[in-house]
């Protein structure tokens, strides 16, 4: 099931996305929330009539860096022996079609296409064999990074946590095997990144076991699983799209921060 979060006539709701052709997609409005038992209302709205929002509003976004060997290599970094985590605040999250605001404190903004895992239930110290039980589904993410700030400040809070630095969407796909999916990114229609989730150094199971040893994850929290090689610069006016096999495409435009 594809679960979207959307607004219509000033109201926010979740809906199940139905249909195959992009111009014929409809939303069957969900009674309740997707983190508990829910029903489909049978009330359907054309996707073209709503505004898609970030598919979830996470309490926290836990991101893992250098999880693809070629990406670590292209930036001159060693591959970490264990998962390497950092955080993006909830205020960094935006949805499909929202604007990425180029921060005034950076002159080198980069894109990073990633598979995102959406947590479906509160969990801590999750054993490897139970990881699938705590996952609601998967969505596309773009870990927007102020690369010059990342290099200069040596820690990543501002470089990766600024407002609008975490586009998510367009929806959450709940029925998906994430082990070998194509991940690609284009800028203005030109391909920049192309990889497969099978190239991850540490699996999704590794990442969730690792982080839940330390902290509790809540429903709607998001795990970013790393980016394949090909990261590069973004400029004001660029349109950047992340596409992941079996999920869909997340598109955002870069604008000057007002």
From TrEMBL:
Span of the signal peptide: none
Keywords per UniProt: Metal-binding
Residue span, Rv2993c-like N-terminal domain: 1-55
Occurrences of domain Fumarylacetoacetase-like C-terminal (ranges): 60-255
GO molecular function: acetylpyruvate hydrolase activity; isomerase activity; metal ion binding
InterPro entries, per the entry: Fumarylacetoacetase-like_C, Fumarylacetoacetase_C_sf, Rv2993c-like_N
Pfam families per the UniProt record, alphabetical: FAA_hydrolase (PF01557), Rv2993c-like_N (PF10370)
Gene Ontology biological process: carboxylic acid metabolic process
Record-given protein name: 2-hydroxyhepta-2,4-diene-1,7-dioate isomerase
């Amino acid at each position: 099931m594809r679960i979207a979060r959307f607004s219509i006539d000033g109201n926010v709701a979740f809906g199940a996305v139905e249909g195959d052709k992009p111009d014929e997609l409809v939303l069957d409005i969900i009674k309740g929330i997707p983190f508990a038992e829910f029903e489909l209302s049978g009330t359907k709205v054309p996707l073209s009539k709503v505004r898609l929002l970030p598919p979830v509003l996470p309490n926290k976004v836990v991101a893992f860096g250098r999880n693809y060997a070629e990406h670590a290599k292209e930036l001159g970094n060693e591959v970490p022996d264990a998962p390497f985590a950092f955080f993006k605040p909830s205020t960094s999250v935006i949805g499909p079609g929202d604007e990425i605001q180029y921060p005034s404190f950076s002159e080198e903004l980069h894109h990073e296409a990633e598979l995102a895992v959406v947590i479906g239930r509160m969990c801590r110290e999750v054993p490897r064999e139970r990881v699938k039980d705590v996952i609601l589904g998967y969505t596309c993410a773009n870990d927007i990074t102020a690369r010059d700030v990342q290099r200069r400040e040596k820690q990543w809070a501002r470089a990766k946590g600024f407002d609008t630095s975490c586009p998510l969407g367009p929806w959450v796909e709940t029925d998906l095997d994430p082990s070998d999916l194509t991940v690609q990114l284009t800028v203005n229609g030109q391909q920049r990144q192309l990889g497969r989730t099978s190239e991850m150094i540490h699996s999704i199971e590794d990442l969730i076991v690792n982080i839940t040893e330390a902290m509790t994850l809540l429903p709607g929290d998001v795990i970013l699983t790393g980016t394949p090689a090909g990261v590069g610069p973004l400029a004001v006016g660029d349109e950047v799209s992340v596409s992941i096999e079996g999920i869909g495409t997340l598109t955002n435009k870069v604008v000057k921060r007002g």
